[in-house]
Records
---
Amino acid sequence: MASAAPSPFLQIDKLTKAFGALKAVDAVSFSVSEGEILGIAGPNGSGKSTLFNIITNIPFRADSGRTVFKGREIQSLANHDIARLGLARTFQRETVFPTLRSIDNVLLAVENGGHAGAKRDNEARAEAALDLTGFPATMHNTPAGGLPIFHRKLVMIAGALALDPAVVLLDEPAASLTEGEIDKMRTLILKLRDAGTTILLIEHVLPLLTSVSDRLIVLDQGTLISEGTPGDVIADPRVVEAYLGGAA
């Protein structure tokens, strides 16, 4: 008798979130394999960041649907428990504590992420997370608020990595970056994937998104309208229409 197929590493099943009459995310379903980069595209206001919010329960939960991680339903868990299970996220804006040193921003994640130990061990974990992103060691003691935008993004990503996540949800990491910085962000994303991290990536910089993603999904008005390889999705008439409207 044939054995049952293994469950997806991360499964999103009909997640829905409404704000009054507006369904920001409308019964969205997809799955993610371990070690995969899943790109998430869509016009502004299509529900991409809301989707991340209701997967991680930060700052609010889904109205209905399921999130299943390694066979366990997690949609009802507190957001810190989801993070400690192995799902960490970043945000569109560079969410750092501006008056704290860069390394102290990452230390906060270490100390509150379920991996806290002796002070020296915590500092070593924070340094390792910063080093993994390529953040300069000479800037560890720089107040985060005084960093250039690219380095603030690295501090935020390092804070997520300090949780030792199995899955990282990156929300527009290339926003406001220069072309050279986008290339560095591309290198970092692939480096994380090669190290075994599963990645969900929201990005408006389509050359970056298509070059690193194994698969793409596209949202429009809260609904998943296309899913597949980057080449197939970008050529989908529904995706063209969503981005270009009447100009299509």
---
Amino acid sequence: MKRTFISLLLAGCFASLAQAGEFKEYPDLPPQQSVLSALENAPSVVAARAGIQAGQAAGDRIAAGPYEFNVLAGDSRRRITDTGQNQRDWTVGLESALRLPNKYNIDQKLAEQTATAAEQSYGDAMHETARRLLAGWFTWLKETAQSAQWQQQTELMQKQADSVARRVKAGDAAALESDLTEAARLQAEVAWQQAKLRADNAAASLRNYFPALPLPANPALQPPIAVSEPLEHWLTVGLDHNHELMLARTESKTAQLMAQRADADRLPDPTVGLHYTSERDGADKIAGITLSIPLPGSARRAASREGEARAQMAAQKEAMVMQRLKSEITASYNTARTSYLNWQSAHAASELMQRNADKIARAYDLGEAGLTEVLLARKQSLDARLSETLAGLDAAESRYRLLLDTHQLWPLGAEEHDHDGGS
């Protein structure tokens, strides 16, 4: 093989670092350099990187061919009956099977495909690991955001409880109202502690899988962005940069080459040998060439038929991968668009509920509304804000997932060095 594993690995790593500048940074995502470091140190990616070395070695083996030289040596004693004389005979030789030229050419192509498949498996491992990172990141964001909002609700209910306590002390409210506000505050505090526990567990899980990934104390939440490009754009870009599809294509091409190789093997390779023989204590010297050719049988014909069938299987697998990826990209596109619309509705509902809660709180202060109405309005407002926050994070995650699956979010393969991401 022309390229060594070290050169491939260094080229891939430096390319990845250089590519980071070509992709956008997003404030609600970790920095790209941190993402790349986390991905490259993930066990699945490290294993795939070792697979590149294995793929190269396998390619070198295929290119070198299955045949080696055999050294022959023999020694014998001859006894002449008439004279009773003992004579020594010995033979040395060297032989090897010779690959026919068409088989040699096929093997060189197979070697290249084997190394290429290993590189694409590495890119696919990066992609799948990036999916896990993105999902874990947004799980943590969602739980952290909920914890922060329940904390705000707890503080708000504390203020409400303090206000009611003053009114009760002044004789403007019944003691029952103080109990109601205290119960509401305690309920909010319990919800806050539960949300904090979920956020801590999500952070621990993310750190376990990606120790190098920094988790900010106060993660930035950004309004989601709508997907404006048509579905055809995402299908084209996604299928052009998908490692899984490229790997399926490589496997299909490899199967075709292996079928050609099996068909070529129906004509056996000849074995050529050189030998030198000394007989009668060196009185006779014999040098010669041997040529042997196996007689092909039904096994070779069966191997050829098997190769053709496996090539058809690989081609159909490629078609299946293509169909599935189209379906997945379409579903991701529809999810991203619908999630954004859901967020818009949730945002509008949250603003209405907040205004309603503020109005009822002012009415309570003026004695025009009861405490039960205030607490109900506060709860409805909180539920609306939580729904808006989660809908916004769902919309952002679905859009980032679409960008990730179309290789426009983070650089995940050496073939992307000319690809300028962004959308």
---
Amino acid sequence: MENIGEKCGVFGIYGKGLDVSRLTFFGLYALQHRGQESSGIATSNGKEIFCYKNTGLVSQVFNEKIIEDLPGFIAIGHNRYSTSSGTGVEHAQPIETSDKDIALVHNGNIPNTDKLISFLKTKSNDISNKNFSDSKIITEALHTLVKEGKEIEVAIEEIFPLMTGSFSILIINKEKIIAIRDHFGIRPLSIAKLNGGYVFSSETCAFHPIGAEFIRDVNPGEMVVVDENGMRIKQITKGEQKLDIFEFVYFSRPDSNILGQSVYEVRKRFGIQLSKENNIDADIIIPVPETAIPVAIGYANASGIPFEMGLIKSRYIHRTFIEPEQHIREQGVKLKLAPLKNIINGKKIIIIDDSIVRGTTSKQIVKMLFETGAKEVHFLISSPPVKFPDFYGIDIPNQKDLLACNKTIEEMNRYLGSTSLHFLSYEGMIKATNIPESSFCTSCFSGFYPIDIFHKKDDIIGL
């Protein structure tokens, strides 16, 4: 999906006798798809917190020496996606306190930090003029209460009502790791066990590489604490599950499980439902790699139209910091996708993708398929039109830049240059998950925001 990114992925582990920094490295490696801007790990040996973070992919940020210099039995890690709030190492996580007593990683977004800032002002800690992220403000609020002598769990409970937004957060001090999730559970967070210890991850796909066994999700509004006494759980506030449905549409790896459902199987059912809703005469079905592959398999199985990998993705294009020269930059999507002429030439094609945001990449794909010899190009999307911005941790462009906000489906089709354009219906998307609509946040499609977005709603078209 073009020009859209998850803010980050988080990973954490507690286990005496475990090589926690190394295990966290491999956990973050499995979560690389959730963020490629920066990566970081913080550990504790019970006496001191150690931290290293930098820009780049996990494999670029860490090496053997750095991992060895992160000792301890507790660790948290973070992959960050580049967002409008800024890039560079200064925006990387974990966030540390000045005395290195607390470290924090955050997946999500607090669209309005006024309550947290007001709280800090009452503690003579005015940060309103500082360029702090929402994650940094949360960390400072916690730190203020801990410095007053409060246990970190008590501090978390006190500031929890001030965090109006989406968050799956992992926190460590020198002795324990704590997981908290907003009361709607918009961003995912799961728990596993490993050799007497416990592991936390944004997605279950990170458990398998390290041999951890999934236990359950952190429930919305819940706090999970792990220390030398084991794991204990407290429901801080009443929870109501509203998972962001984009986890199924795009973000999560296909080998993850969410709310008891296989992401891979849900995407296959998206394809089956697309086939039921759109009967198209075509020779072959081609996915836009990678997310749409199971969707295309489902469509092919249901329709009887052959599945082909007509577009080949360069696996390593994002693994370099070398800027392309102007001629290469102008190639656009050709830098990432290569068409197979013997598959495409002379064929009526169904091309399947997970969503359309601005439409610029989709337009280039259609043009490339016709240039490769396609007779017809029918574009199918395995989600409804994206009409509204997100304020809960997805880096979606301004609403005015969303193609579906400004054009009808027919106008979008003409803009893309495709033979036809079809979206999975909202009802069909929900049905394919085998999960009730009430368990989802669908704000990008429906314009319904379960958590207050305050003044931002005034700028949204169609509300």
---
Amino acid sequence: MSRFVLPAIVVALIAVGCSSAEPLEGIDPPVPIASEDMQTLLSESTEPVVLNVWASWCTPCRSEAPLIGRAAEQFEGDVRFVGLDVRDTPNDAASFIAEFFPTAPIEHYADPSGSIPTDLGGSRGVPLTFFFRPGGELSYLHFGVIDERTLVLQIDELVNG
């Protein structure tokens, strides 16, 4: 057996194990949303919005997800948290939500093409975290994994600024 065959088999087995073919019981996949509808959601929001862009296949997204979930719980009622799953499958997205956000008050939407973040001024890379004032004005955009200090400072700016 070639030295390249065994690693390829291991990678294939891991990929099969990480993908769920059956829908998860009790967990709905994110609702697909068009770019115009996301922009309307933001512009009509009377609360500040933290929009976190993620994907189940994104390892950095997995590392920041627990922080995003805790912040959504901590700031519930003051800030509206929205998750945008990009370029993903519904079942994998539902698994990600079940793992990282089972009780977090986050509205989740799907963007299969991944075009919404760029339409909002971001990039195609994930993770991204947008901070919007009530009415949809962009306050701050964070590229990459967000740390607790930056997240709390930007939320404080939205709430008290």
